[in-house]
Every structure is written in structure tokens, then in C-alpha cells.
Amino acid sequence: MAINTSIQALLAGEQVAGSRLSSKLLNELLAEGMLLVISHGSRKSYLARDTEALKRFLIDRDESYRILEVNLPDSRASMATETGNSKLVTVRSCPGFPVNSYEPIECFLRGESFWVNPQEGSFLFVSDWEKFTIPEDVVIIGIENMENFRMIRKQRLLFEKYLKVHEFSNRVLFVSRYPQSSDLRRWLCSIPNYYLHFGDFDLAGINIFLFEFHQYLGKERSSYLIPDDIEFRLQSGSRNRYDEQYSHFKDVKSDVFELQQLIALIHRERKAYDQEGYICCNS
């Protein structure tokens, strides 16, 4: 795979004009917070926030990008020397997704009982996800930010209160879609369990939910986790984040009343709020 020159420029720490990036990839990178937006009048260019994080994201998204890990990408000889294969095989080496819980949950892997009960400070990774099943009364909470995912116990009161108020089961399995792939979504589509999405409270975060999950699972099986104090928290949110996202996600809409209310609130406050702000909500 030949790496697009615009991607090479971003990874080299250079500014890249928006016209040089595909709109699909650009929107995805913005939604993931990978890029800084630099305005030049009516034109915009983009800069990687963290080139190493961007490289890791691209590799996790599509392992064809593993060529980026080779020191001399233009030399097939160097690829053969460093990888043992001059045509880098594009088979993904790490399928699946991580799971976590703050209470023991009996799941099943290949038909055999499999308890998800990681010690605090750790989580599990399910690679054979096509043979992974859970009881139907378990609610799945997908967490976008890895810091939030690692620290679910520090957010337990938030989750328990939300589940109780909305009359969900209090049995919960936490999942994350990192590394980037469609495995988590495909697994969710194969099981009957309800899915709650816990992401950033900004236009890009809502866009991820709508197009990565909601359009596949529908209203009956998925919703956005909106804490009851989000209006107050947005008041101290980030104006810059909102401004960066506005031109790309200003038309995001939902036919779900509560989610459209959140979108309207974000536009009214002209701010965005990171989900990491809820990590200490138990204190």
C-alpha cells in the first residue's frame, strides 16, 4: 500500500490543506480529536495533535498502514528484512475489543463459562469475539475514552444512577471500540442486548454514535448516555473544541428527542464537554 502524501505530511508534523484529505477520513480524524484546525480566512488546514497517536490510530484502523512501522517504506528489501515479508500481509493481528466490569459477569466464550471480573487497574481483551456471548439482561455500555474505560469504578455512581432512573438492568458490561475496527459493532449487531453509548458531549462524539452504532442498532436497542447535570457541566466546557468541530458537524441531527435536545444545548452554549470530567463523580 502506498501511503497518501497528505497522510505522510501530517505524520511529518506538517500542515495539510483540507482539500488534500478525503472528506470521510477528515471527518473521522476530527471526530477522534486527532487534528488541530488552522483557519486561513475561508480556508482551513490541519495539523496532527500528536503524530505518534495519529500513526497508531491509522494502523489500528487499517493494518495496511503497518508499512508506517518500517523505517524505509520505499524499499522492498528493507520491508523483507524488517518484517520477513516484502508485501506486508494485511491480515489484522489483533481482532476484537476490550471488556471491563466492576462486578463479576458470567459470559460465555466458545460455549464455555467465562467470567469477566478484572482486578481494578486491569481489563480483559476478547479476541475471539464471534464466539463471545453474554446474558440477555446485561446492558452494554460503550465508552469512547480509554481513560474513562480504565476507571469505571470511579464513575460507578454515575452509571448506577442512570440505569436506575431509566429502568435498565443494573448488570453491566463495559466495552470499548479500541483498537479501531468494526468488530465491536458487528458483535453488537449479532446479540440482542441493549447498548448505551458514553462519549464526549460534543458534536463529533454524537456523530460517532449516530453513524458507528445507532444507524445499525436502531432506537430500540441503543441510546446516548446523557447525565442529568450535563447542562451545568457544558457551561464550563471548551469553546475552542466547539468552534473546531462546527463546520464539519453543524448539521448533525437526531430523531431521538433527548439526543436532539443535547445537540441543541451544545449549540446554545457553543461549548463541548469531555467525558473525562465524570471520572471523579464518585467523590
Secondary-structure map:
Elements: H1 5-11, E1 16-17, H2 23-31, E2 35-40, E3 43-48, H3 51-61, H4 76-83, E4 97-100, E5 105-109, E6 112-116, E7 124-126, E8 132-133, E9 139-143, H5 146-150, H6 156-165, E10 172-175, H7 183-190, E11 195-198, H8 203-217, E12 222-224, H9 230-234, H10 239-249, H11 257-269
Parallel strand pairs: 9-10, 9-11, 11-12
Antiparallel strand pairs: 1-3, 2-3, 4-7, 4-10, 5-6, 5-8
Helix pairs in contact: 2-8
Quick take:
By secondary structure, the chain is of the alpha/beta class. It has eleven helices and twelve strands. The protein has a six-stranded mixed β-sheet. A three-stranded antiparallel β-sheet has the order 1-3-2.
Which key phrases capture this entry?
single chain; 283 residues; six-stranded mixed β-sheet
What does this structure look like?
The chain has eleven helices and twelve strands. It is an alpha/beta fold and about 280 residues long. The strands form three sheets. It has a six-stranded mixed β-sheet with strand order 7-4-10-9-11-12. A three-stranded antiparallel β-sheet has the order 1-3-2. Strand 11, helix 8 and strand 12 (about 220-225) form a beta-alpha-beta unit. The N and C termini lie far apart (about 50 Å).
Helix/strand class:
alpha/beta
Q: If you compute it from the alpha carbons, what radius of gyration comes out, rounded to the nearest whole angstrom?
A: 20 Å
Spans of at least 5 consecutive residues whose pLDDT stays below 50 are 71-83, 85-91
In spatial order, strands of the major sheet run 7-4-10-9-11-12
Number of strands: 12
Oligomeric grouping of the chains: single chain
- Largest sheet, described in full? 6 strands, mixed
Distance between the termini: 49 Å
Total DSSP helices:
11
Query: What share of residues is helical?
Result: 25-40%
- Integer average pLDDT: 86
Indicate the overall shape. Answer: globular
Secondary-structure element order, as H and E?
A: HEHEEHHEEEEEEHHEHEHEHHH
Strand fraction equals: 15-25%
